[in-house]
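Let us walk through a complete example step by step. Step one is to write down the protein sequence. Step two is to encode the small molecule, magnesium ion, as a SMILES string so that its atoms and bonds are unambiguous. Step three, shown after the inputs, is the structure prediction itself.
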Amino acid sequence: MASQNVADFLLQRLRDWGVEHVFAFPGDGINAILAAFGRADDHPMFVQARHEEMAAFEAVGYAKFGGGFAVCMATSGPGAIHLLNGLYDAKLDHVPVVAIVGQTARSAMGGSYQQEVDLLSLYKDVASEYVEMVTVPEQLPNVLDRAIRIALAEQAPTAIIIPSDVQELDYSAPTHAFKMVPSSLGVEWPTVAPDDAAIGRAAEILNAGSKVAMLVGSGARGARAELEQVADLLGAGVAKALLGKDVLSDELPYVTGSIGLLGTRPSYELMMDCDTLLTVGSSFPYTQFMPDFGQARAVQIDVDAKQIGMRYPYEVNLVGDAATTLRALIPLLQRKTDRGWREDIEAKVSRWWATMQAEAMVDADPVNPMRLFAELSPRLPQDAIVTADSGSSANWYARQLKFHGDIRGSLSGNLATMGPGVPYGIGAKFAHPDRPVIVFAGDGAMQMNGMAELITIKHYWQQWTDPRLVVAVLHNNDLNQVTWEMRAMEGAPKFPESQTLPDVSYAGFAASLGLRGVEIDNPDQLAGAWEQALSADRPTVLDVRTDPNVPPIPPHATFEQMKEAASSILHGDEDRWGVVKEGVKTKMQEFLPHRER
Ligand SMILES: Cc1ncc(C[n+]2csc(CCOP(=O)(O)OP(=O)(O)O)c2C)c(N)n1
Ligand SMILES: [Mg+2]
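Step three: the predicted structure of the complex.
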């Protein structure tokens, strides 16, 4: 057998771990690995992004929707630096991503050499769970295997750095000798079962309450039946953290939807009025949307002891797998006989959905962005995967879309970075080429990253068994989410120099790539546009002229606060901002009646 170099072994080991795709961009720091991809007939597949940050986002999307871990790769220096934002997205949302990066040759290291960056120091924070440089071949299996196992065990990004000359060395395995560290493949995970006594104490608290609220997050994924049973026994309402939007169906009448600034009024009231709180698999950070201290007795369930016990003064912090822990709890729970609390929640939820529908139907200039989402909602395929970028679309994703069935959805929850919408969609397509994927992205996010990644879509879509990938662009010529944050939090008017975007035709750009590009400037086009995009034979870009004056009203805003906000916008520097303010004020007043209570 021809001798195998380190790069060949690296790819061999990735294949042994079942890795099918590597999201990457080339450079001479990884040239030997590229050559190895060639010798291996592109197995695993080298998925070429336009930019290393996009490669990292694609890996995050792939792991979020595909399960397991994902691999991204970049060259030394600039390539490794470009990966960082995507890797931080993985770190903050607890996603296992293994980054493999090149480094200058060992002979040059420490010589202030071209493209030489101290990558161990640079990656120390983002890959704090594990980052290691491979300097001799015998190290490789152990370092790679650990990077993978630790990424999975800690649900975190890890990184391995391989100097370019090491990649070219003949591979030699660790031997049965002093200072050699052999390694093996695979890992079998335990089910983390809760402690019996703690389950008893948790049940006592949950049985004692009469107004139970549940808060579920992405850590509760896979525990759908158990959550439904517990909610039924406790007569509880269930609010969902943004990353857990797909863990429980919005068709259940007691599911109050998203929580927080992007959340719903029934979730807000659920938390404000409850006397008992059960949190499962969520570390939703915003205390002001949680019950007041001393108001509720609370129990938290989380599989990760490092994440438990924060955010609220919980009485019992139960470490355990969500489904297993809930199953242990169920026999000890007494069914609440008074269903008044539950009935009240259900009435609020049904009123709220009607409010959302009414808000989506308010006329705007030209298209109300909420209507874009509202028209999709009833047309969402049962197996759809939905992503949203950071921007105003995150509000409408959270509030307007009714998830049900096996629909999956995600966004950059904790880093809240701009730019992952389209690359997450691409990652989703590689993880599930047979499922339709829908991306919502602002025009700012498209100009930052999304347009370049449409080129990646052009490059690969014909390989996907289901060609449906819809990118809906909220074309408002504004960095709208920040414009609204400035209005609401700074009381400041829009500053066009920072907020207004140059006008670009997203449909035209898509068409130039051979994708479907559809311009929409009339809300009556939306229904048909979704239907066509969801039955098209290729990816579609919906270029929707949305109105930047439609306010993302927070769930807890009262009618009075809304009126005040509208008037404070009006009483600024008329000369410069008058036209915009007039439009905003009128629009806000149109929304007020729907929030009156
Ligand atoms: C990398 C990065 N830069 C800046 C921000 C701050 N930010 C959050 S949303 C937003 C505006 C997004 O604008 P756009 O994509 O056009 O969406 P819109 O809100 O207009 O729908 C900005 C600048 C961020 N979250 N991430
Ligand atoms: Mg915008």
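Step four is interpretation. Residues 389-393, 416-418, 442-445, 474, 476, 478-482 surround thiamine diphosphate (ligand 1) (CB under 6 Å).
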